[in-house]
Every structure is written in structure tokens, then in C-alpha cells.
# Entry
Amino acid sequence: MALAVCIAATLLLTGCASSLPKEVERPVSAALSQPQNTNLGAFIEQNRPANTKKDASAFTLISGPQQAFSSRMALVENAQKTLDLQYYAIHADHRTSQLLRAIVNAARRGVRVRVLLDDFHSTGANAQVMRLAFVPNVEMRMFNPLAGSRASTIGRAWTILTDFQRAQQRMHNKLFAADNTLAVIGGRNLGDAYFDASNDGNFVDLDVLTGGPIVKDLSRSFDRYWNNVRAYPVQSLISEQELLKLKSQFEQEDSKTQTTSTQAQTTDTDQDDTALNLRQIPWVWAQAMVLADSPAKIPTESDEESFDSQESTLLSSITEPGKTLAAAAPVLNTESVVNGLLALIRSAKQDLLVVSPYFVPGPEIMSAFRAARQQGVRIRILTNSLASNDAPLAHAGYARHRKELLKLGITLHEMRSEAANVRSALRSGSTGASGSTGASRAMLHTKLLVIDGRLVAVGSMNLDMRSQHQNTELALLIASRTFSQQARDSIDESLPENSWRVEITPNGKLIWRAPQDSGLSDAHSEPDASLGLRLMLQLIGPLAPDSLL
# Structure
């Protein structure tokens, strides 16, 4: 009853906004048409080895949160014409503010900036990111926006409840492109927790910096989303005055914690904010293709544009890079990025490494693993433990399949983390607070597949039913034994010391083998998780279907 009264009061105060604007101007724009005429375009061509094919692109793994930050700063500082950003979440915290200030400076020197952001997290303090839209030379659009007040958590919750199906389908893509020539792609959102600067815990993530023809394919995917009916200019949703009013409101609410925030900011100044030196990057040149879901995977509010199976077919480039890759990978005629990856899993011959932080294997995913195991493929999977998972309910979807996976002969590793209870599990990630030197709790966020030591898939997708059927995703498929070895080594080097290996005993019980040299004992229940967290998993987990986790 009390909750119902709160919701009713909130709806009255917010005017019960229940629909999105109908008449919206969306000026069509496209990626830079002649990127070869920019300094970055010339830089990439100068670094191209003489013996590489013209359709090959350059790739390098981004190692660690500092390089993740500095690589994006390098793209901002070196861009001459355009910057295109596409993200699921951009948090209004300290490290992100540093990056956004650099982007504003780029706009002031004449760089055209386009920012496409999913709307799910743009409430409260994070709504202030939308003020970018009012900076000259910056355009910002919100993808699949939700109606209602951005100041109230209850108001947003009501919107989600009354428009549940559309609200839970999100644009999960992550892309940061400069001059249609260089781009960063991976699983990382923008926020303190993704750059090792959060007090509550930090994500262990992986990015790829790429340059060359493949960036044009990534930009084509961006343009497809940017010009889509589901993308709303910020100005059609909220005014600058309303955002400033929200800012004043939250500043008053946060005044009690100002001392803590100031201390965190002072500590964070010790972090290296310099841009990555692009000339020192060890490039690997290889052929690749883009895997991108269609924006039509998400229905519109009015449902005026129905889900079109042809429109949702995997957008891998119908260009020469995609054609020449056909010798290294099967043709991917599927309805989602994840389905394309399942086709690759089924085609594996020897070895498969899967890193998926939110791993909820539905029927089709389990079927692909069975098919690969029947072919004798060695399969290793790294995912979050209950203690390291910032979405404990997602862990429930994995835990119910754990014994079956082990019985198939699949090797399971779970991320080692500090001890976690219910509160810490639900508080993880960027919260809008200022940055710090980081926290000890580590949470896996890397999304990676290495297939037969010759193909690497890296991007925004998880191996779960949400990525498969609901969210839109973006990934790269890179055909290179050298790059595959580097990606595999980046995981294997830390796996023994930073993960629990899960095994099943002859009597059907689970046992977690302690990380190497950790001084810890083997565990017979979810390691590092409190009794309360384990009970929550047991009580609530069975009520949530895999499709919603």
C-alpha cells in the first residue's frame, strides 16, 4: 500500500508523462566520407606493412583501465573532423567528466561530435550527461528513451512496469570512433568503475583499438542507429533549463557527502590522464568483419515499425573485408550477433575459450556447446562468481546450468573477488560519486571468444538470452592467429591466480578449487559470498526465467 501511494504521488508530481514526443526532427547525417584526408587516415596508411592486403585492418588489445582511458583520450585529441560515440551507459562521474571535457574542447576546435546513448541509465545525476547536447558542434540522441521524470527513481520504475517489454530491450552497443579511421570497441561503458576509479568496485574489461577499412563498417552500423526512428534528439526530451534544475536538486542532496567526494577527486589527480601515444602501438594487421544487430531488434513505442527478420539479420559487412573473411569463417545468416557466434561455436574443431561476465546459457546456447563437445572441442569458460557479479540474479541463471555444463566436460572458471554480501553485490559499479584510486573488489566485464586459435570475437555481447533476443549488440570478428594468441594469453596469464575452478565430485556435489598461490582453501559453496547473498540466490533465483536475466 505504501509503495502504491508513493507511485501515485510521484505520477501526480511529474504530470504522469506517459508517451514520447510524436513530431521529432532527426536531421540525417553520416560518417566522414573521406577519412583518408585526415591525419589519422594518413597515419594508418603509413603504418600499413607493404605485404598486407588493402582490405586488412590494424588491431591492438587495450591492456588495463589506464590504457582504456588514454586510448580514448588519444582519439579525442587527434580527431580533426568527427567523433562518434555509441554507448549503453555514460555515468556522470569524475573520470568520465575528464573525458567529456576533452570532447567539448574538440567540438570547440571544429570537430563534429555525435553521441548516441541508450536511455536506461539517464536519470538522477547521470541525466547531466545529456547537457552535452547543448554544446555547439555536439549532437546527442537517446536511443529507445523512456517517458516520465528523470529525477525520480520511482517514476522511472513506474515507466518500466507500464512499458515492460520495450523498457527491458536496450541498445547495448559500445563504440568510440574518430575521423572514421580509428575506433575503440569492446565491453566497456564510460564511468569510474570501468577505469579503475570507483570506491565500490571496478570492472575487469577488454577493448580493442582498430584502424583502417573495418572502421568504415563500424561507422555504417553507427549511422544506421543514429538515423533510426528510435533515436531521439535530447532537445525533444528535455530542456537545458530542466537539466540545470535537476543538477541543483542533486547537488543539494549530495552536499552531506561533499567532503568525501573532494578527497576522492584529490586522490584521482594522481592518475595518468595523458593520451596514448599512437605511434608506439604494436599493430596486428588482419582481415575482419563487423557483427551488428539491427536497431529494428527493439520495437518502437507505438509499434509502428514491426520487427523485420531481414532487417534484424546479422549486419556483417557486405563489403570486401567481409567477403575475403569467408574463407576463415562460415557465412553467418542469423538473426542476432549471438546467433552468429553460436554458429561459430558449432563450427569449432579444436579449442574454444569463452569469457562472458553474464553467462546465462539458454536452450540454443547449450545446444551449441553440446554440438562442439560432440566434435571433441575443448571448451573453457570464464564468468563471474556470485561474489564478483554485480548482477547476482544473472548468476542464478548460470548456476542452474552449472552441473550440466560440467557433465559435458566443459571447464568452468569463476572470477575471484573480495568477500561480498547482498549490499555490496547490489551497489557495484559507477554511482555518480567522484573517482578514487580504485577498490579491491573486481567484477568481470570482458566479452571475448577465441575459436580454434584463429578467430577472435570481441564486443558488447554476453552469452545469454538477453543479448541473444532482447538487447542490440556490436562485435568484431578478427581472423588472425597472432591476435588470437594475444587474446588467449591475456586471459590465460591471470586465470590460475584470479579464478576459482569449479568441478563436480563423483557424488554430484560442486567444489571450487582455490586460486593458485592464494592461500585459500577449496570451497564447497559459492566462494566469498555471504550467507545472505547465497540465500537470496536460492530464494529469488528460481523465480526468474533465463530470458529475463
Observations:
- Residues 64-78 form the longest helix (15 residues).
- The CA atoms of residues 204 and 444 lie 5 Å apart.
